[in-house]
Structures are given as structure tokens and as C-alpha cells.
Design goal:
Elements (H helix, E strand, L loop, with lengths): L15 E7 L2 E7 L7 E4 L5 E5 L20 E4 L2 E7 L2 E6 L12 E2 L2 E2 L1 E3 L4 E7 L3 H6 L15 E7 L2 E9 L6 E7 L3 H11 L6 E3 L1 H10 L1
Parallel strand pairs: 3-15
Antiparallel strand pairs: 1-2, 3-11, 4-7, 4-10, 5-6, 6-7, 8-9, 11-14, 12-13, 13-14
Length: 216
Amino acid sequence: MKELQRISPVVFKSTPLKTKKRDNLDLVMEYSAEGDGPFIVDLSHSPRFDVQSSDLASVTPLGITLPEIPGQSVLEKGVLANRMNSTQVSLFNLAGDESVAMPTESVYGESMYTDVTESTLCVAIIGKETFSICEKLTALDFMDPEKITPFLYQGPFSHVPCQIITLSRDNEKSGLILTCSRGYGRDMTHAILDAGVEFGLKPAGEKKFILWLNSL
């Protein structure tokens, strides 16, 4: 049986320098002339799940204690968990080559997990000037001193409903992850790149993201 070739909703005009095949996807590890940052990184290949349960307090996927309050996030073992509401959490596997198998627990024979990987876009914006770029695309206040990283916003970004998780506000280590419906992939990518022109925003491969994530 012929396996289907996966295609990312994100298309960059930059020239790939290093690539690898993973899960039927041609994954770019590094682009030529990535520069010193800031960077936009395609993470649409990273497994992402929605977890739904009326008793999330009893759910510990991969041994991770899920955040209790909507808007809170936790990052453990390469997995990012984001509390969306009283009954729903989103899970992102950001571990790259050290990827972990996402959980499959069920309740009364029905899975609590919905795989949203192929139906959504996911990108990271990392490095200096990350939030200056975002200020051009949303009114959300990523610098709110009452918010402790990592934290989740659910709101408009370039007029599109998104989940945006701020992982760091530490100067050149600043960065966030954004996800939205796959159909907005081309327009969202172009909007972010256009907003980042004056700050030198360039596409980078997954290698750059993993190095950044491990530095936090």
C-alpha cells in the first residue's frame, strides 16, 4: 500500500539547507541564510491533541499534571499543555527527534484525545523583537506583568481566532507558539513575515527551534 505524502500548510520562499524525512513529511531542519533572529519556524508537523473530560483533574497524560486554571500552561518532558476551559486542554508535542508517543486513554470506551495535527497550522516566533512583531498583528498584551510564562491566550491574531502560547519573555530568548485552523496557513504566514520585515524576521528550521527550546 502506498503511503500518503504529508504536506505542511506553511510555505516559505527560503532555500532549505538541511532536510529529513519524518512521518511521510519532508521536514526542513535548517534554511540557508537564517541570520541572527528573530525567526519564524514551522511546527505544523508536531503532534497536537485536544483533551476533553469533565474530570481533567484525574487526567495525567505522560505523567504531566495538567494546569487547572484557563489560560495557564505547563511545559514538561517536551510536551506543552494549555488549559483552554473547564473541560478542555490542548497538548503539543514539541520534542522533535526525541518525540514521545502521545497518550490514548479512554473513558467508557471513547478516547479523550482528538488529533488536530493535520487540521491546524502551528508556527513559532522566537528571538529578539518577537513581541514587537506581534504588536502589529494583535491587541493581546503579551507583556502583562500579571501573566506568568508559559501562558495561553485564545483570541484574534491577524484577525484569525488562534491559540497563542507565550513561552518566554526573556529578551533574545523571547518566543511564542501560535496555532489556528489549517485553512489560514498561507495568509497567516504572509502576515507574520510582512510584519517582521523591519525587524529582520526570517524562516528557520526545526533545529533552531529545538536549540531555543532547550535553552529556556
